[in-house]
Amino acid sequence: MTKKYTFILLLFLNNIITAQVGIETTSPTATLDVNGKLRVRNLPSYNSEPAIKDSIVISDGLGNIKRVSSKQIYNNNIKTFVKGSFASTATLSLSILSGSVKIPFDFVDFDVNTEFNTTTNSFSPKQDGIYEINVQIKSGGVLSASTNFGVSILNNGVIVNRNNFPNVGVLGVNVTPPIRYLNTLVQLTTTDIITFRINSDLLSITLLGTKEDCFFTIKQVR
Predict the structure, then answer these.
(1) DSSP per-residue codes, 128-192
(2) Integer CA distances (angstroms), 45 to 51, 53, 67, 73, in order
(3) 159 - beta bridge partners?
(4) Does the pLDDT of residue 178 top 90, yes or no?
(5) How far apart, in whole angstroms, are the C-alpha atoms of residue 137 and residue 212?
(6) Which has more pLDDT, 174 or 61?
(7) 49, containing H or E segment
(8) Secondary structure element (H or E) that encloses residue 17, with its range
């Protein structure tokens, strides 16, 4: 009889050890399921650098406690920093259709979030936010007086900012600098696409390919 009771007790204890425990819940879904606030009164500090780099505790949307690396959290919250230009420093000739043409920026000096596509010459943000956008172009040819020449920033094909004006001539000689520059703030979502275009009444135009003369930068400020 004693052996029988001992077996039953051991079986009962084993069930307790392997069972899920719930606090303020009768239906636990984890080894320890707490339906309420969690407080640790004495939490010791830990100064091990390797552990700190890979020991961040988080809670998912269901309240499950998990561990992720600090690098993963950092990478998921990196703000946008992009600077681009042309891959070739040679003068670039562009045909202008319907008064404008997309600027084919095809090189990035840096792009920390990999958000600029050098094939489509477009920028797509990975995070909603407010972005500071700059672009500069410089004509590589001689522009006659009264020639219209400018640059614009487009979001999903719609102009959000433009610096466009005709050259000014004195005695028939163009005295307007061949540079157009834009700086603006734009609120973007992850579905937006930013492109840059040249506006002109010419049939074709040349741009300097050097990074000092033609470039763009995009920075997330919030």
Answers:
(1) -EEEEEEEEEEBSSPPPTT-EEEEEEEETTEEEEEEEEEPPEETTEE-S-SEEEEEEEEEE-TT-
(2) 12, 14, 17, 21
(3) 154
(4) no
(5) 10
(6) 61
(7) helix 49-53
(8) helix 2-18
Q: In whole angstroms, give the CA distance from residue 164 to residue 189.
A: 27
Listed residue (193, 191, 218, 212) closest to 102, CA to CA: 193
Contact indicator for 222, 130 with CB cutoff of 8 Å: yes
Per-residue model confidence (pLDDT) at position 61: 79
Residue the block writes with tokens 């690396």:
69
pLDDT at 133 over 60: yes
Terminus-to-terminus CA distance in the chain, angstroms? 74
Helix, strand or coil for residue 56?
A: strand
Give backbone dihedrals phi and psi of 10, rounded to 5 degrees, phi first: -65, -40
- Please, what's the largest Cα pairwise distance for the chain? 121
CA pair distance 154, 35, nearest whole angstrom: 50
| pTM for this prediction | 0.69
The single residue listed with the structure tokens 């600090």 is 70
pLDDT digits (tens, 9 = 90+) for 197-214: 999 988 888 999 999 999
Measured distance CA(120)–CA(102) in Å, rounded: 10
- Please give the Cα distance from 122 to 29 (Å, whole number): 46
pLDDT of 217 > 80? The answer is yes
Concatenating the DSSP letter of every residue in 51-80 gives: HHHT-EEEE-TT--EEEE-HHHHHHHTPPP
